[in-house]
Amino acid sequence: MTLISDHVEADMRGRIVVVAEKLFREIGYQKTTVADIAKVLRMSPANVYRFFDSKKSIIAAVAQRLMGEVEEAAQVVATTPKPVQLRLRELLISIHQLNSERYVGDAKLHEMVAIAMEENWDVCVAHIERVTGTIGGVIAEGVASGEFYAPDVPLAAMCTCTAMLRYFHPQMIVECAEKPGPTVDQMIDFVLAGLAPRG
Amino acid sequence: MTLISDHVEADMRGRIVVVAEKLFREIGYQKTTVADIAKVLRMSPANVYRFFDSKKSIIAAVAQRLMGEVEEAAQVVATTPKPVQLRLRELLISIHQLNSERYVGDAKLHEMVAIAMEENWDVCVAHIERVTGTIGGVIAEGVASGEFYAPDVPLAAMCTCTAMLRYFHPQMIVECAEKPGPTVDQMIDFVLAGLAPRG
To answer: Distance (Å, rounded) from C-alpha A23 to C-alpha B121?
Structure first.
């Protein structure tokens, strides 16, 4: 019975998150109430509160879902059998594109993400750590094959991620989209130069 | 007469900007009115409007003043006679420190800067271009002496500036101050590696 009720519980949480994301996108985070979410699911607000103790917990779960999609897609690119330099380039481009698709050109979703980031920074930190870990995996392979030089791989991965902030951070993507600066490909050239073996 | 009245006019503009900055810092940009600024200067709001057509123009001038201080200080570091690698490091650190001092730990000033950046993006773009130009000057010297490799110096300067976004951008400085990530020195090591001559 435990397994079944666990499954039912996970399913209910999942349904709440999907409906919440839909409403946050449609009418905005601030204007959406737990009662609105409950209504779409034909349940009482009290029942929603059985699964999430606050709207803040719901937005954290929505953010986690969106970030989880990025992490999974990035992992696929990172493990595709391709030369390591090209793979790192494609990985960095795909993180940029995955974040852009999710967070740009949708003011309501953008508001939601800004709030989610402010209120649940630990969720974001965990996401950044996972993405940095994926980048570090590719850098480590390049170091092993002699194609990259990085005496401290986790640090090189953090620096790579930080160098790409303009292209990874939802707010920076929006703010800098039309502003002068390097293209994402030019920036990756610069990062790859920083990882090149010393002469 | 023209020279004298030009001087008087510049002086009045300067006084308005100094008083406005003081009020924006003390009571916040949103709550400060043109009438408040006029009152401190013992003049009529109409007289302030002779020099600035709106509060938006005043905040642009305040932002320009703050950014101008950063540009001048950066220029001094960039032209101090020191080895070029060390000079670039000190330049990047000083831009980080100058921006941190100005914009961190002062919520009201931070609000002001966020609004100034949003409403007067052209002022910010001009500032970023000047700072990037200063960075480019040091990189060009290093290229000439063989200490740096950068086939396209303006692009290398833009990439350097972009790589340092976490440490230069007022909002990113505030948001990332306590978050995991490379230290500013570690990030500069990474940037310098990207500018190192190829083997």
So the answer is: 32
The closest CB to that of B165, out of A165, A190, A197, belongs to A165
In the chain, the amino acid numbered B174 is: V
Tokens representing A35?
A: 């009662």
Domain span(s) for CATH 1.10.357.10 in chain B = 56-195
Compute the count of residue pairs across chains A and B with CB atoms less than 8 Å apart: 81
Paired tokens of A46: 């009290």
Q: Return the CATH architecture of domain A1-53.
A: Orthogonal Bundle (1.10)
pLDDT, tens digit (0-9, with 9 covering 90-100), for B42-63: 999 999 999 999 998 998 898 8
Rg value, chain B, Cα: 20
pLDDT category at B3 given cuts 50, 70, 90 is low
pLDDT for B112 beyond 90 = no
Q: Please, are residues A91 and A141 in contact by the beta-carbon 8 Å criterion?
A: no
Please say whether the beta carbons of B133 and B157 come within 8 A.
yes
C-alpha angle A132/A97/B120, rounded to 5°?
A: 100
Structure tokens given for B166: 């976490």
pLDDT, residue B6, reads 75
- ipTM of this complex prediction, to 2 decimal places: 0.86
Judged by CB atoms closer than 8 Å, whether chains meet at A163 and B190 is answered as yes
- The C-alpha of B36 sits at a distance from chain A's nearest C-alpha, in angstroms, of 32
Instruction: Give yes or no for a contact between B127 and B43, defined as CB atoms under 8 angstroms apart.
Output: no
Q: What is the CATH number of domain A55-195?
A: 1.10.357.10
Query: Where does B56-195 sit in CATH, by number?
Result: 1.10.357.10
Top-ranked range on mean pLDDT: pick from A2-16, A79-93, B18-32, B89-103: A79-93
Residue of A155, A163, A196 with shortest CB distance to B163: A163
Q: Return d(Cα A145, Cα A147) in angstroms, integer.
A: 6
